[in-house]
């Protein structure tokens, strides 16, 4: 039986159900769009999306493409083409599951928000754009989705517009994303001019792909997925509400860059330079982010840097020429990262807005469900055997260790694995364990099912998702089967090293010695001094250049000096010179007459 | 001045001009030029003011030298070709000397130095005569010999005249000197087209005469010898000032006033003769004189001097009507639509 029609129709049904909260108010006058409606729509869409995914897995089909052409004017047809292959079919239910949980949580978290319906509509629009990006079969739709998630990210980060920090963070996000967009548009232009198409399947180069479009794609991914150099927007994006951080900046939007590289993988695979660039960029990003996370005191910032570090790890996997493994890490990472953010949201709201982990502690007894889920999430993040993160992360480290690649990248990634464990354990200990440091008059309450249901659901996902996904997806590249024992256990050993380090350091806090100012600690907590150096330099240069060109060059020089004022000066000079000739002495005049006549005669003969 | 003396001078001027323009023989032409020179000297030095006497002296010296040069050039031509006919000026050196001599008489660069000072020293009416009537006989001689003249020399002198008239006029506040340099500029326009179309040169000269006479007569009415006097004359003769502005803009060559006609036709003729760079140059150099015409027009009409408000309109003005001023001003403003007829008549 051909499952094409089934998969096609059910996926389109899922997408249409998602759009109902936005479209129905225009069709029916008395349709009230409330958060409950939106959450229910996403839940329905999730349940329905399981059907095409199951059909897809069961039938073993490679990919199904659904192609419309929107005939705009005479010769200009806009192709709308959706591709349902293993990536988009796996991503669809996962994204919908995570979004459903986040929306349910947001019903509690944003309950006191006056414009809560608009908030949910924004989240829904973002989700639609993201799904458009993942199911796009051509660069046109991908670009539409890309820009869509960028805009929604801007609107959602700056949700609390009255807060100056939020506006600055939103602006940072837009500018850094835009720099990445330059790379994407460059690649799109190159694709259009070389292959005469924007279809991704047709973009296959017989020999080595030139480096230019690949650098464009890597730049786009670096911008969207916060690799080193274009990373500051991700920690700054924590200014947005926690549901936004959970949805956009952990599970879905930030993986768009990596997803782009996964889609364009056939182009990338032919060029070893591009792969090495991905590898080194990813290794640098992961270590830098992990180092910065070590000394952060804001719980959301720790999780943001953790996201950044995991994105670097995904980039490393792309650099290893293993796109499927990167996608696996995307899928498993979505679960536990969203859960970590939701836990932090629950903690923050219960502590009346306290985000500093130095002011938390001993929450295990007060918020049992939340902190248990926090622990599960952290363990999954560290790659504890047989939780979700293990299936992807351990495979990545094993492939890293058994590949012929840059040693420096390998070392950085291993160090980052250790640091991951360190900051996760630090966060866990400071938030949950020990004596509590919260202000006394705080009443905590997590009895609301709107909190516990999403958290437990995501916890279930964090535990089982790895196993489920790997059971049903056939790997396209052979995983490494045999390796020395030390290589096999490298990941777990680094993690244990990190845990031991964290426990040892937290023991030191009991000894009450005054901490000395330490350059490494300063480097880490100042986020590598990147922000003050780069932000000031570039904006100042740009503004200065603008002033020079617009004011000095154009206004003063061309429009004043070259035009009226310069001309007037010349005439004044000529006038003065001529006046000084007219002395009034008749002898001089008559003499000049004689001289002129002489010159005239001599010149003509 | 004594009425007998005035009538003798005037009659001599008319006689001298008539003799020159109707002569066939070089000596007769020279005679007319000399009579003109001698007749106007007393008119310049009428007021016996040192500056007027100096102006008269400068005028006499330069004009005498010029007349001698005219005679010399005609003599060398007669020596070589054996005839004294004005239109048969065939010898090139004679032509060159004649061109130089007439340039001194007219006031073309580089022989123009005497002109502003003479004009500054003479009364306004005599200045009018010097600018218009006294240019007519030398111009006639050039017109009669135009086919033997050197075009390159004339073009060079014309461009230099327009340029120098423009640059020097920018730096003046005395109206007579300004009008002297405007005269030098216009002579440049006349000289550049002389070889290619003598009729057009004559037309330019006629229109220039009309416009300059209108300006001089208007300035004579308000006794304006410098810019500040023009500025404060609007209370006494408001309409005349407004008309003066239009006549000055006509001198500058702005359409739709009369002064546009000669410039337009000259540029057209020059372009037909493949002398486009020269046409462009002379047109651009006229922009310099436009500036000081505009300054004069601005001062006569547009700015208000710091009079107190009860001096705004005087109750007593000398309202002697002056027909020539009116007629000449009207002609210099409104003659452009008649350009086909003018072009055909001349």
UniProtKB/TrEMBL annotation, chain A:
The chain crosses the membrane at residues 6-28, 40-61, 87-108, 115-133, 139-161, 173-191, 211-230, 242-262, 274-295, 302-320, 326-348, 369-388, 408-429, 450-473, 485-503, 585-603. Residues 136-419 form the NADH:quinone oxidoreductase/Mrp antiporter transmembrane domain. InterPro entries: NADH_DH_su5_C, NADHpl_OxRdtase_5_subgr, ND/Mrp_TM, NU5C-like, Proton_antipo_N. GO terms for biological process: ATP synthesis coupled electron transport; electron transport coupled proton transport. It is an enzyme of class 7 (translocase). It holds the Pfam family Proton_antipo_M. GO terms for cellular component: mitochondrial inner membrane. Belongs to the complex I subunit 5 family. This is NADH-ubiquinone oxidoreductase chain 5. It comes from Anser cygnoides.
UniProtKB/TrEMBL annotation, chain B:
Pfam families: NADH_dehy_S2_C (PF06444), Proton_antipo_M (PF00361). GO terms for cellular component: mitochondrial inner membrane. It is an enzyme of class 7 (translocase). It catalyses: a ubiquinone + NADH + 5 H(+)(in) = a ubiquinol + NAD(+) + 4 H(+)(out). The chain crosses the membrane at residues 57-76, 96-115, 152-171, 178-196, 202-219, 239-258, 278-298. Its EC number is 7.1.1.2. Belongs to the complex I subunit 2 family. PANTHER family: NADH-UBIQUINONE OXIDOREDUCTASE CHAIN 2. This is NADH-ubiquinone oxidoreductase chain 2. It comes from Anser cygnoides (Swan goose). The lineage of its organism: Eukaryota, Metazoa, Chordata, Craniata, Vertebrata.
């Amino acid at each position: 039986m051909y499952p094409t029609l089934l998969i096609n129709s059910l996926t389109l049904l899922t997408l249409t159900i998602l759009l109902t909260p936005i479209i129905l108010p225009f069709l029916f006058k008395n349709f009230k769009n409330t958060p409950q409606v939106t959450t229910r729509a996403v839940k329905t869409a999730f349940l329905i999306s399981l059907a095409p995914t199951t059909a897809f897995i069961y039938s073993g089909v490679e990919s199904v493409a659904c192609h419309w052409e929107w005939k705009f004017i005479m010769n200009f047809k806009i192709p709308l083409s959706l591709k349902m292959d293993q990536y988009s079919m796996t991503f669809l239910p996962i994204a919908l599951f995570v979004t459903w949980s986040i929306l349910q949580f947001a019903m509690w978290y944003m309950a006191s928000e006056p414009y809560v319906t608009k908030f949910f509509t924004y989240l829904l629009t973002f989700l639609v754009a993201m799904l458009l990006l993942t199911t796009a079969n051509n660069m046109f739709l991908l670009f539409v989705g890309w820009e869509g998630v960028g805009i929604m990210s801007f609107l959602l980060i700056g949700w609390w517009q009255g807060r100056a920090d939020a506006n600055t963070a939103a602006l940072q996000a837009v500018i850094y994303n835009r720099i990445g967009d330059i790379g994407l548009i460059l690649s799109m232009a190159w694709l259009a001019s070389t292959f005469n198409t924007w279809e991704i399947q047709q973009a296959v180069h017989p020999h080595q792909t030139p480096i230019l479009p690949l650098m464009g794609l890597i730049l786009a991914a670096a911008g969207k997925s916060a690799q080193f150099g274009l990373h500051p927007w991700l920690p700054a994006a924590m200014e947005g509400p926690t549901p936004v951080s959970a949805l956009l900046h952990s599970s879905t939007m930030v993986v768009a860059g990596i997803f782009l590289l996964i889609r364009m993988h056939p182009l990338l695979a032919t060029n070893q330079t591009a792969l090495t660039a991905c590898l080194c960029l990813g290794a640098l990003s992961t270590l830098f982010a992990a180092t910065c996370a070590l000394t952060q005191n804001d719980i959301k910032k720790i999780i943001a840097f953790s996201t950044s570090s995991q994105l670097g790890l995904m980039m490393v996997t792309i650099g290893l020429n293993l796109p499927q493994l990167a996608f696996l890490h995307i899928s498993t990472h979505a679960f536990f990262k969203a859960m970590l953010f939701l836990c932090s949201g629950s903690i923050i709201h219960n502590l009346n807005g306290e985000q500093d982990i130095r002011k938390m502690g001993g929450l295990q007894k007060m918020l049992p469900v939340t902190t248990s889920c926090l622990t599960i999430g952290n363990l999954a993040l560290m790659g504890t055997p047989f939780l979700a993160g293990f299936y992807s992360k351990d495979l990545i480290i094993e492939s890293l260790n058994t590949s012929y690649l840059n040693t420096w990248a390998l070392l950085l990634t291993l160090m980052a694995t250790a640091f991951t464990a360190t900051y996760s354990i630090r966060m866990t200990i400071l938030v949950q364990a020990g004596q509590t440091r919260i202000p006394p008059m705080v009443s905590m309450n997590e009895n609301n099912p709107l909190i516990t249901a999403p958290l437990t659901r995501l916890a279930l996902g964090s535990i089982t998702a790895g196993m489920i996904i790997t059971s049903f997806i056939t790997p396209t590249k052979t995983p490494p089967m045999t390796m020395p024992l030390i290589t096999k256990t490298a990941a777990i050993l680094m993690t244990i090293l990190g845990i031991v380090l964290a426990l040892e350091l937290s023991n030191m806090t009991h000894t009450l010695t005054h901490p000395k100012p330490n350059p490494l600690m300063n480097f880490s907590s100042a986020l590598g001094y990147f922000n003050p150096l780069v932000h000031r330099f570039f904006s100042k240069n740009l503004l200065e250049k603008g002033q020079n060109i617009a004011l000095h060059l154009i206004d003063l020089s061309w429009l004043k000096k070259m035009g009226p004022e310069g001309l007037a000066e010349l005439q004044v000079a000529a006038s003065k010179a001529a006046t000084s000739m007219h002395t009034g002495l008749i002898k001089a005049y008559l003499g000049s007459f004689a001289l002129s006549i002489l010159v005239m005669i001599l010149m003509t003969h | 001045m004594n009425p007998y003396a005035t009538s003798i001078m005037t009659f001599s001027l008319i006689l001298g001009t008539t003799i020159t323009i109707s002569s066939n023989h070089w000596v007769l032409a020279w005679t007319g030029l000399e009579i003109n020179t001698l007749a106007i000297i007393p008119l310049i030095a009428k007021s016996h003011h040192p500056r007027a006497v100096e102006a008269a002296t400068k005028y006499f010296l330069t004009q005498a030298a010029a007349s001698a040069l005219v005679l010399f050039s005609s003599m060398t031509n007669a020596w070589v070709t054996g005839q004294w006919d004005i239109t048969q000026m065939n010898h090139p050196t004679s032509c060159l000397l004649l061109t130089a001599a007439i340039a001194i008489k007219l006031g073309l660069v580089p022989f123009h130095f005497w002109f502003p000072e003479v004009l500054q020293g003479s009364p306004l009416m005599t200045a009018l005569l010097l600018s218009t009537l006294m240019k007519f006989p030398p111009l006639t001689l050039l017109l009669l010999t135009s086919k033997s003249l050197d075009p390159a020399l004339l073009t060079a002198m014309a461009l230099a005249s327009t340029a120098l008239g423009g640059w020097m006029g920018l730096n003046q506040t005395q109206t007579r000197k300004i009008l002297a340099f405007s005269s030098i500029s216009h002579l440049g326009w006349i000289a550049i087209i002389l070889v290619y179309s003598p009729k057009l040169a004559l037309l330019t000269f006629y229109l220039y005469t009309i416009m300059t006479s209108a300006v001089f007569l208007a300035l004579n009415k308000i006794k304006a010898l410098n810019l500040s006097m023009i500025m404060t004359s609007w209370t006494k003769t408001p309409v005349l000032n407004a008309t003066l502005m239009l006549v000055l803009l006509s001198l500058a060559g702005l359409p739709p006033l009369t002064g546009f006609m000669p410039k337009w036709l000259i540029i057209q003729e020059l372009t037909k003769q493949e002398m486009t760079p020269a046409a462009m140059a002379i047109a651009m150099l006229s922009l310099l004189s436009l500036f000081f015409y505009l300054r004069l027009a601005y001062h006569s009409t547009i700015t208000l001097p710091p009079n107190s408000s009860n001096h705004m309109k005087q109750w007593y003005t000398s309202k002697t009507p002056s027909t020539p001023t009116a007629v000449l001003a009207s002609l210099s403003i409104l003659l452009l639509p008649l350009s086909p007829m003018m072009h055909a008549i001349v």
